[in-house]
Design brief:
- With 306 residues, the chain is of the alpha+beta class.
- The protein is built from 8 helices and 9 strands.
- The radius of gyration is 66 Å and the shape is rod-shaped.
């Protein structure tokens, strides 16, 4: 048997080394001494006033094992060790925010890529808008130019029609159309002859005082035409002119006509040759019984060699 030297508790379990009441180291006692002590403990429990008697359970050998197992300190204290384990794990929980800055790197890279894509897309949109604007402005300028030329031609025809009406008081019959075409073609051939002959005075007799259209100009005086032809006649010693595919249309008034034809020329001098071919259009009006040129223009150039 064993006894606690502090509280005098008796234990029959020889495997115990420490007291279950105060944790003191137990001492081995003989059976006779333990019986006497046990008797003293029992008999003296009620005679000492003011003292707490030791637990009665320890005096009952049949109850001791149960009392010892239930009161085992390690079993009761084991749950208390868990908070310590939780405290050890706390640094792992607080370590989560420290990794947050690392995860921002992909976000920053993605933001930069998105920004570059947006800038590229914006630049592409601006370039397309500027390109379309340039095309639109070019188209508008072309349309305005064509419209201006159309208005110019209409104005020229109106003026020529007015001049023709002022210079005639009679309306030809349908039978006169063929005769008018022959007359205009005769004037056109004579005009070409004066170029071959380099005869400036005769050449200018086939022009009206004012030309409604003269190539890219309008309302040009015959004096300007004379100046330009005089320079050409003086520059070249040989001037060949051929007209073909002549098509003449006469208006119902019989005082205005339009001729389109292919013109081939070969002008030569000791220093230079100038030749070419193209499609031309002349306008004629009849005044005082004579057909005169009121307009002259190149419609198309087939070839030119200077």
């Amino acid at each position: 048997m064993k006894r606690c030297p502090t509280c005098q508790s008796i234990y029959t379990d020889v495997s115990l080394s420490y007291c279950l009441q105060d944790g003191s180291k137990l001492v081995v006692v003989s059976d006779s001494a333990s019986s006497a002590d046990a008797t003293w403990q029992i008999s003296g429990g009620g005679s000492r006033a003011g003292e707490e008697p030791p637990p009665t359970e320890i005096l009952r050998p049949e109850d001791m094992p149960t009392a010892r197992v239930e009161a085992t300190a390690p079993t009761r204290e084991q749950p208390r060790a868990r908070p310590t384990a939780v405290a050890v794990e706390q640094p792992h929980a607080t370590a989560v925010p420290s990794t947050a800055p690392r995860s921002s790197a992909p976000v920053v890279a993605l933001s930069v890529i998105v920004g570059i894509l947006l800038l590229t897309l914006g630049g592409l949109i601006v370039w397309i808008a500027m390109r379309d604007k340039g095309r639109t402005e070019t188209g508008v300028a072309t349309a305005n130019s064509n419209q201006g030329e159309t208005k110019q031609e209409n104005a020229t025809r109106t003026k020529s029609s007015t001049n023709s009406s002022a210079n005639t008081t009679t309306q030809p019959s349908p039978a006169d159309t063929s005769a008018a075409q022959k007359e205009v073609q005769g004037v056109l051939n004579a005009w070409a002859d004066t170029i071959r002959q380099r005869n400036l005075d005769e050449h200018m007799k086939y022009y009206a005082d004012v030309l409604d259209v003269y190539y890219n100009a309008t309302n040009v005086s015959s004096a300007r035409v004379r100046t330009e032809r005089s320079a050409a006649f003086s520059k070249y010693t040989s001037m060949e002119m051929q007209l073909s595919n002549i098509n003449i249309s006469v208006e119902p008034s019989g005082t205005r006509a339009t001729a389109t034809f292919d013109k081939t020329f070969d002008f030569r001098s000791d220093e230079k040759d100038f030749k070419g071919s193209g499609l031309n259009q002349f306008w004629f009006s009849k005044a005082s019984g004579r057909w005169r040129i009121t307009g002259e223009k190149d419609l198309k150039t087939y070839y030119i060699n200077k």
